[in-house]
Amino acid sequence: MRSRIPGRALRGAVALASALALGAGLVACGGGSSKDGGSQGKDTVTVALRTPNWILPISAPGFTQGENAIFGQALYRSLYQYKLDGSAHYNIDPKRSMAEPPAVSDGGKTLTITLKDNTWSDGKPVTTKDIQFWYDLVTANKDKWASYRAGGFPDNIAQWTIKDDKTFSITTKQAYNTAWFVDNQLNRITPLPQHAWDKDSATGAVGDLASTPQGAKKVFDFLTAASKDLKTYDSNDLWKVNSGPWQLAKYVPSGEVTLAAQPKYSGEDKPKLAKVVLRPFTSDDSQFNVLRAGDVDYGYVPAANVSQEGYLKSKGYTISPWYGWSVTYLQLNFNNPKTGSLFKQPYLRQAMQMLIDQPTISKVVWSGTAAPTCGPVPAKPGANGTDAAGCVYSFDPAKAKELLEGHGWKVTPDGQTTCQTPGTGANQCGEGIAAGAALNLTVTSQTGFAATTKMFSEIKSQMSKLGIQLTIKEVPDSVAVTPACKPTEATCSWDMSFFGSQGSWYYPAFASGERIFATDAPVNLGSYSNAEADRLIEATQFSGDESALKAYNDFLAKDLPVLWMPNPVYQNSAYRSGLQGVEPQDPMNLMYFQDWSWK
């Protein structure tokens, strides 16, 4: 789910993530083009992006969409930022990060971190007190933190020590693979303005309330309530104190958002523009129509409109695919009390995977802008293609039919396939599947994406040829209505969920699966659980050997915790040719507006 789980896409920094889409929200109208710059002038850029709806830089369940990560990083810098070009130690971006790379000691168990000189927008220095404030909040409220997983951060911390205003150290309970810990644990730390936010909500007095667990819960509840009050985002004094290159100038719920350059920004990457306007749209088509009219400076070309790229280029736009460090999949609800028993049968998951023609869908539906997903570890960013070589389960309807019939199902092409031989024997349907049970399933998908609609039309057609009947239900936010759940909960009625119109999951720098495929992982919406998968995922956290990541990938590619789907580029970005600094586009699904400028 940026990580990006999903919403635009769920991100791993978060999100499930992710996620989710450029283009969902209100249709906004725009003015004409300016010959001096963009649609609103040479100091402003207009960007097609779904309206963010979470401002607190502590991720919350249901708010891990990619646009929230982009919005959050514009306002509140993380301790570390990352890049995947192979040039940086531990993938840490030295220019954007707020601290120096950690010094590792004690056999890899202790990491000592020194902050750079930075200030808040009100001129106060960023110190380890702001790091401690963040730590106190997430430790006392980890059950409400989307990035928390039992046994992970902060459970894996043996000692957290503030040495002085600029230096702190973290000692872990075990010696981890340092690359994993730096990329997938330290990426969560975001300094928070303790001097402005550590408030008593009743009196408004600022102090050290969060230094105790009870006080930290009160402060967290206060900040969470403010984060849910979208109509006050641009007026609440809380959000006027920030560390990022941008400040929030205007916010319209489900509408336009205006970011203004932060005049007191202390980072190296200072904004070159005065304003960035984020403009949402209801669908691919509505966004593309406005893009064609020249009323946005940065948008995207939907897969269904790739043939019109030539027209956009003739109008002064540059077209560039945005490759993601991501995978795309169809989530299966193993805990659904009615259909979960079906998904728990490996043979049935295999048969369904064999009915998804990834190469053809990638080529025809996504116009070559997607690549088959074969397992949980993504291909190198930029390596998109339509070849499914290497996938454990290729498109094979005949083999799928054999699997079903060999496990007690009466296959009725273009009809309804049913279980004829219930039981748990070798040639029977499996535990929990009654005689006469039908393969009749609902897919909850996203509205607003023409390519996604066409893709599921093709998959539904292939499934029906073997009597597997799919109902496709499109909703604005498929993540919100298909949560992780217990079989006894009313919310557990969903069968399959898709939130991958622009990638399902965007990884942090290290592509391990503890947040999406481990038992009880925070973004494991389908409640997949396998002891061997858990062991292999854990191994990637402790071993620096690349074979650990490969073993994890190979097992899950075969076991199918989800159904692997064509992985599209995040989007085919279209931006005015006079707009500089857009590329390279971040494979982890962030947008650095501060790098942008007009020629």
Automatic annotation (TrEMBL):
Keywords: Signal, Transport. PROSITE patterns: PROKAR_LIPOPROTEIN. It holds the Pfam family SBP_bac_5. CDD domains: PBP2_thermophilic_Hb8_like. The keyword Transport applies. Residues 96-508 form the Solute-binding protein family domain. It is found in: Cell envelope. Residues 1-23 form the signal peptide. Belongs to the bacterial solute-binding protein 5 family. PANTHER family: PERIPLASMIC BINDING COMPONENT OF ABC TRANSPORTER, PERIPLASMIC OLIGOPEPTIDE-BINDING PROTEIN-RELATED. This is Peptide ABC transporter substrate-binding protein.
